[in-house]
C-alpha cells in the first residue's frame, strides 16, 4: 500500500542519515506504585554477567535510589542501588559491595557492572572508565525465574514498594549479557560504536510491562 | 599435540576478536603483610626511566599510600607515594619531589613518571596529560640489585611494613623502561594504542611473588 | 665530515621514529630576578596576532602570575596575566580585558590568544576549545621595538620586577603569528598535528637569553 511504501521510504532515509531511534523511560514523580517490568530473553541463571544502562537523575543528597532490581520469590538476586551517600552498591542475595564512584547526575551516565563467579571479580564502568576491581561472591550463581523491575525495589515478590527508594529520572538502554565483556567493548558501547547483541536482556527487543506513571519516549541517537 | 593445536586455535580466535587479556592485582583490605614482589627483566641500574601503571583506589582524605617501592639493602631508591594531602611524591634515596596534580580515585588513572639524570627533568603524566616538568636529582643514578614491591612500603630490606601506608585498591599494567619515552608515546599508551616493549619491568612477562591477601584477576582489554 | 654524516643519520632516524624534540623552560622558585628574553623573528608591529603557549603551574589561590610580557620603553604593550582570582587577563597598553575561563593547573594547558584590530575581536583558546569572543582595542596597533619576557613582569624597560607576580612552573611552545589563525588550525596545534610556521615568535628558532634560575630541558614529543 501507499502507507507501507512511505514507511519503507522513511526507514530507508533514517538509515541513510545514520540515525537510529531508541526508546527511553521517564519516571517523573515520587511514587510507590510506578514501575516497569522487563521480560528477559532467557532465564537469569548466571555465573557471570555484564549489565549496562544509561541513567540520568536529579536526585541527590541523602536519598537511596533503586536503579535495577532482579528478585526471585525469596531473594533480592541482583539489585543495583544509589546509596544514601551517593555511592553505588551491588547486592546479590545478601550483603552488598559498595563503589565510591562519582555521583550520578542530570547528564546521562553510561553505567555497566561486570561480575564473574570464577574469580569473584566485580567492577563498575562509568562513561567507559573502569572502576577498581573488587572481589565479591566468588563461586556464587544468580538464580533464575525471578522478575526484572525498573523504578521500584520489591521487598517481596513484586510488592512492598517504598516511595523513598523509588527512581525519579530517566533510564534507557538496559542490556544484559551472560558473560564479562572486554573493557574495550564497554568503551565502544559508551562511545556509541558497535555493541555485541545482548542475550539476557535486550533493550531493542525486550517486552516492557508498565504500571503507574511512567512515560516511554522515542529519541533519535 | 592436540592440546597445542587447541591453544593455537584459542590464540587465533582471541586475536580475531581483537581482545587481549591482562592481569590485574586487587589489594582488598588494610594490612601490614600483603604485598607483591615484581621480578624485573634486568637490574635497575638507571640514569633515566619511564615508569607507568594503571591504578584505582578509594583511599582519600588524610592517608599516605605507597604506589611503587624499589628498595636496595640500605636505601629507598625509587618510591612513588600519594601524600597525606592527595598530592603525588617521588623519592629517590632522600628528599622527594612533590606534584600537586588531580587526586587518584576509584576510576582507573593511567599514571607515568619520567626522569632523566642528565638534565634532572622529571614529570608526571595522568591519563596522557603531562604535568609541569621539575628538576630533580641531576646526575644521580638509581642503584641496582634491590626489590620492587607493590602494596607496602619496606622500611628495611623487605620488612618493617606500616598498615597505615599500605595500598588498598587495584594496580595493573606496571611497566618500566630505561629511557624517557616521548610524550606522544605515553599518550598512545593511555589510549590503549601501541606501546614499546618495556625492558626493565614488563607487566606481560614479569614474575610476581605473592604475600598475604592479594588477588590476581585476568581481564579482557 | 664524519660528524656531519652522523648528525644527518641521527636526524633521519629521529624522523623515522616519528619523534620530535622540543625545548621547555622550567622556573622552579619564586624570585624577582629569573627570566628569559625571547628574540622575535621580526618587530612586533601588529594590527592582528595569534599568540600560543603551553603552560603548567602549581600556583593557585590569590596570586597574580605573569604569563607573557611584551614591553616597550614606556608601555606594557601586550601582557597576559593570571589574575588574583584565577581568571586570565589580556592588557594592551592600558585597561585590560578579562576572561572567566577554567583555571590553569599542574597539567599542561595549551593556551592561545587571538586579536584583530579591524573588528576588535579577541578570544582565548584553552586546549583547543574557544572562549566567547569579546571586543577590545578596536583600531589599535601594537608598537614595535620592545622586549619579550617570560617569567617576570617588567614595570619599566626590563627591570622593577616583583617576585609576588613572577611565574613558577613550566612554559614551552611560545609562538606568535601576525594574523588571526582559523579555529581549526588552533585545534590542530593543540592536538599536536601540523601548525603553520610562526613568523613573529618561532619557538623552534628563537634565541633565548637567560637570567637567574631558569632551566631549559629538551623533551621528546
UniProtKB/TrEMBL annotation, chains A, B, C:
Name of the protein this chain belongs to: Pentraxin family member
Key words of the record: Calcium, Disulfide bond, Metal-binding, Signal
One example GO MF annotation: metal ion binding
Family: Belongs to the pentraxin family.
Gene source species: Mola mola (Ocean sunfish)
Alphabetical list of SUPFAM superfamilies matching this protein: Concanavalin A-like lectins/glucanases
Cofactor binding remark: Binds 2 calcium ions per subunit.
Entry GO CC: extracellular region
Domain named Pentraxin (PTX): residues: 21-221
PANTHER family: C-REACTIVE PROTEIN-RELATED (PTHR45869)
Signal peptide: 1-21
Subunit architecture: Homopentamer. Pentaxin (or pentraxin) have a discoid arrangement of 5 non-covalently bound subunits.
Amino acid at each position: 500500500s501507499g502507507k507501507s511504501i512511505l514507511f519503507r521510504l522513511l526507514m530507508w532515509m533514517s538509515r541513510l542519515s545514520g540515525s537510529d531511534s531508541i526508546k527511553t523511560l521517564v519516571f517523573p514523580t515520587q511514587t510507590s506504585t510506578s514501575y516497569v517490568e522487563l521480560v528477559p530473553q532467557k532465564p537469569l541463571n548466571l555465573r557471570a554477567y555484564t549489565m549496562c544502562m544509561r541513567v540520568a537523575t536529579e536526585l541527590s543528597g541523602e536519598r537511596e535510589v533503586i536503579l535495577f532490581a532482579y528478585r526471585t520469590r525469596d531473594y533480592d538476586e541482583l539489585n543495583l542501588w544509589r546509596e544514601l551517600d551517593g555511592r553505588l552498591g551491588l547486592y546479590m542475595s545478601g550483603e552488598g559491595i559498595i563503589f565510591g564512584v562519582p555521583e550520578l547526575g542530570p547528564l546521562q551516565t553510561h553505567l555497566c557492572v561486570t561480575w564473574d563467579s570464577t574469580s569473584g571479580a566485580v567492577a563498575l564502568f562509568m562513561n567507559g572508565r573502569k572502576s577498581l576491581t573488587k572481589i565479591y561472591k566468588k563461586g556464587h550463581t544468580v538464580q533464575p525465574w525471578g522478575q526484572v523491575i525498573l523504578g521500584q525495589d520489591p521487598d517481596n515478590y513484586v510488592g512492598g514498594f517504598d516511595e523513598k527508594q523509588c527512581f525519579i529520572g530517566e533510564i534507557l538502554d538496559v542490556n544484559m549479557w551472560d558473560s564479562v565483556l572486554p573493557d574495550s567493548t564497554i568503551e565502544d558501547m559508551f562511545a556509541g560504536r558497535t555493541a555485541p547483541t545482548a542475550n539476557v536482556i535486550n533493550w531493542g527487543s525486550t517486552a516492557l510491562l508498565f504500571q503507574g506513571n511512567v512515560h516511554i519516549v522515542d529519541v533519535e541517537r
